[in-house]
Amino acid sequence: MRLLRFIAAAGLAIRVAGHTQDDLDSFEEAQAQAHSRWDYTFGYSGISTFGHLKHRNCLLEPDLHYDIGIIGVPFDTAVSYRPGARFGPRAIRAASNRHLPSRSFSPYAGINPYQSWATIYDCGDVPTTPFDNKLALRQMTSSLRELSARPWAADSETPRKLLILGGDHSVSLPALRALSQAHGQPLAVVHFDAHLDTLHPSSYPSVWTSEQSEFTHGTMLWQAWNEGLVRNDSSVHAGLRTRLSGTGWDDYALDDTQGFTRLTTEDIDEVGPRGIVDAIVKRVGRDAPVYLSIDIDVLDPSTAPGTGAPEPGGWTMREMNHILRGLGQLNIVGADILEVAPPFDDRSETTSFAAAQIAYEIMTLWVKRGLQDRGQGRPSVHRDEL
Known about the structure:
There is one protein chain. This protein has 386 residues and is an alpha/beta fold. The protein has helices at residues 2-17, 21-38, 88-95, 133-148, 172-183, 220-226, 250-257, 267-284, 317-325, 350-373; strands at residues 68-73, 120-125, 161-166, 188-192, 235-240, 260-264, 289-295, 331-338. The protein has an 8-stranded parallel sheet with strand order 2-1-3-8-7-4-5-6, sandwiched between helices. It starts with a helix and ends in a 13-residue tail after the last helix. Mean pLDDT is 89; it is low at 6-16 and 379-386.
């Protein structure tokens, strides 16, 4: 790659040598004029990258520097009910076209995450096979490990962050494998979901089993815990309202073993969004590295109908916004937004718009935290402080 850059630079020097300074000045003036006239877009135009950010295929550029990489993982063959989340990354990007970098200042955080210190790229998608889940898991794990720990691009003041757009919730397993390795320790998991996802594979009963049948979108946290990827004393489920297996509390007992605290959807009626935030921060702490995993079905189906396993009675987008904005105290090292299934969305693409908003809020948290770490941050003003 360096050789190609050298050749390109040499070629440019040869071409420049044949021109006068007046020619070069004229070219620079024309280039500046072109940028002033044409370097903008409307929300409905242009190539569909997340938020109209620059696209770089980060998997093909090992030495590429960036602070936040948005990576799609279009995989959905580990679902137990409705497939379709393989189209999630594309749909979320399309919905994010409303997020023009020039018009994305957050009045809550006091920053524009796209026009601050961070270099953010849309890194494209991981090419993941739909034909073999064992191979797909290997592809996802390998690609996310490469993206999260590349020594050739270790010139940032802060570790790079990955924002993963799925894809079904099994994608969290390769993500936890990659990021726990990159940070050299298990991660606390803050898991927004209607479902536990710490289920034992026997929760899907069948006499037909295999090693690969254990890999599902409801068992990936059980697998991650068994692999030592999840901290046993500081993880949280938020937004639960699922039915349980069997005739008793066995699912909760297994969840307790894995060290999760459970916050149900209806807990918000007792303590409000700020109470949910306080409970999460108290459980997780401010120093442990955190993986933030958001299943879009934490939202009510009226807000997010396009998902694989909808459960009535979820949170609103306003409540979700409030909770996410309160998590800036956490040391979030990676995040995902999963289970967006466009084939089941409504005509207004409500689910995809919600997912794009969540992605924006997560990146805003990261960029604001980076400013504060540099001593440049300013406190946000919350409505309950006015």
